[in-house]
């Protein structure tokens, strides 16, 4: 009998070691990593960890990080973290909340006048960008002082002009006789002021400030990009920037059943060349519901947005974006805006299918600008003007109709409290500039006016509009809202799958859908 021996010297030894490493790595069992902020220990070899940061640091392909359904006072940062296509790394919040704010330290505040308090070192570093997003949580309510990062913002008040329940910031300026340096730092110094009711105690105000920039944050590019990740069942609230802030490059990333509530800037925002999918997203009380920029590639399904300040939907630059099966109750300064760059070969592109957008406060519009493309089907726009100033619009099987809209002066939440909206319906204006490529059919319009370049059309002249554009042969202009079968969003599907059932105002929100 012949015997065979394996030479373990030199190259043979290295080859066997490599094979063993591959065998071990391919058969290694995926781990369940638990994070308990109260009972966990980051230094322990067994049992739950204390921080999300440590859990992400040690997670390997196939691992799942499990959070408790409680509040975590930290953010989840992913920087060059990679699973594999077959074994993604998963962060499952199980209903956890990442809280971006902390209580103020009352010992840092000095009473400079009766009921007026001042603090010079509230944050270790401030910038104009942070100040533009800044807010105080005052007894659970966000106080923005009429300021937002995207959209018009009021100037800071003088401290002596503050009313009870208000705040302001006074920048420190160069002393008399000194000039500002030629290259100023982005850091800002100065003092915050708070005005209390007469005789109120600062310690009893339940005041909190946003101390974390985001709830979930991505960063990394090149070989150190993020890839093959799943983040689900998680709420981000009260950071001074975005709920979900996605920078750098990422690919094969899935966000599932996530929420961004009362964030200083965007609910979720893609930058640079980020590529991800979202299935189930609630965005409430943020400066912007969704804001995607750069050359990012994003897809959103089952989105519910309300009570934004600056924009409900804002898509920019050369990205490719998709929005499906979504409901937007719009009261922001801008409802939906597409803004391309100067390169016509790389337009900003948004595809929408089965989307319902209703304006509930103040007059506003959907705007498609130069070097942008909107491809929409089975979309319902209520109480919204539509203006295409450039680019391309493809619109099929959709409704653009009137809706009862409250004055813009109403608070964002007022429409939810109103059992009956008595405002007169706002009939939309449809304006198509002369350089726009308009491709459309099987739409239903209830309009105040229809204009192509400088030519206006009445309902009786709709056939002239059809001949001029060579489009809309099966579309119609109606005089009042009726049940138009086959036009617009599938409301039954949206009511069942998109509106969050755990919202206290669910039934009232549902009444805003026809």
TrEMBL record:
KW Ribosomal protein (keyword) present: no
Signal sequence, renumbered to the chain? 1-30
Keyword Signal included in the entry's annotation: yes
Which SUPFAM superfamilies is this protein grouped with? Pectin lyase-like
Q: Which InterPro entries match?
A: Pectin_lyas_fold, Pectin_lyase_fold/virulence
> Which controlled-vocabulary keywords does the entry list?
Signal
Specify the protein name: DUF1565 domain-containing protein
Instruction: Report the source organism.
Output: Gimesia maris
């Amino acid at each position: 009998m012949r015997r065979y021996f394996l030479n373990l010297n030199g190259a043979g030894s290295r080859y066997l070691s490599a094979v063993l490493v591959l065998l071990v790595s391919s058969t290694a069992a995926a781990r369940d990593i638990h994070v308990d902020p109260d009972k966990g220990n980051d230094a322990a070899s067994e049992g739950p960890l204390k921080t999300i940061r440590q859990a992400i640091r040690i997670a390997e392909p196939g691992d799942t990080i499990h959070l408790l359904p409680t509040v975590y006072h930290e953010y989840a940062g992913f920087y060059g973290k990679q699973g594999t296509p077959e074994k993604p790394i998963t962060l499952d919040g199980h209903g956890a909340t990442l809280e971006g704010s902390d209580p103020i330290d009352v010992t840092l505040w000095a009473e400079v006048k009766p009921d007026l308090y001042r603090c010079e070192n509230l944050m270790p570093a401030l910038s104009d960008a942070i100040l533009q997003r800044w807010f105080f949580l005052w007894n659970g309510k966000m106080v923005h002082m009429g300021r937002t990062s995207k959209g018009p913002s009021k100037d800071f008040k003088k401290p002596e002009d503050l009313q009870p329940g208000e705040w302001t910031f006074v920048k420190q300026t160069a002393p008399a006789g000194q000039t500002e340096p030629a290259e100023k730092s982005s850091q800002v110094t100065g003092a915050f002021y708070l005005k209390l009711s007469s005789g109120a105690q600062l310690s009893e105000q339940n005041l909190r400030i946003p101390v974390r920039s985001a709830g979930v944050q991505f960063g990394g590019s090149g070989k150190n990009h993020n890839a093959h990740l799943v983040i689900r069942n998680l709420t981000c609230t009260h950071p001074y920037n975005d709920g979900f802030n996605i920078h750098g490059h990422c690919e094969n990333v899935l966000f599932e059943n996530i929420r961004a509530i009362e964030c200083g800037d965007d609910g979720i925002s893609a930058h640079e060349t980020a590529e991800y999918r979202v299935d189930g997203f609630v965005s409430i009380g943020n400066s912007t519901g969704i804001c995607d920029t750069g050359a990012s590639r994003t897809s959103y399904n089952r989105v519910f947005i309300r009570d934004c300040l600056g924009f409900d939907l804002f898509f920019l630059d050369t990205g490719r974006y998709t929005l499906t099966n979504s409901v937007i109750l719009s009261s922001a300064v801008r409802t939906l805006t597409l803004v391309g760059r100067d390169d016509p070969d790389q337009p900003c592109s948004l595809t929408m299918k089965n989307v319902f957008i209703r304006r509930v406060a103040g007059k506003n519009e959907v705007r498609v600008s130069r070097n942008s493309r909107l491809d929409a089907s089975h979309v319902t726009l209520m109480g919204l003007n539509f203006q295409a100033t450039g680019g391309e619009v493809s619109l099929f099987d959709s409704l653009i109709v009137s809706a009862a809209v409250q004055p813009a002066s109403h608070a964002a939440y007022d429409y939810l409290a109103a059992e009956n909206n008595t405002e007169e319906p706002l009939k939309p204006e449809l304006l198509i500039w002369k350089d726009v490529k308009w491709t459309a059919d099987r739409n239903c319009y209830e309009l105040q006016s229809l204009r192509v370049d400088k030519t206006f059309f009445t309902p009786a002249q709709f056939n002239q509009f059809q001949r001029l554009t060579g489009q809309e042969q099966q579309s119609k202009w109606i005089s009042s809202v009726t049940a138009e079968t086959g036009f617009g969003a599938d409301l039954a599907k949206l009511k069942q799958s998109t509106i969050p059932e755990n919202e206290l105002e669910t039934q009232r929100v549902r009444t805003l859908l026809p």
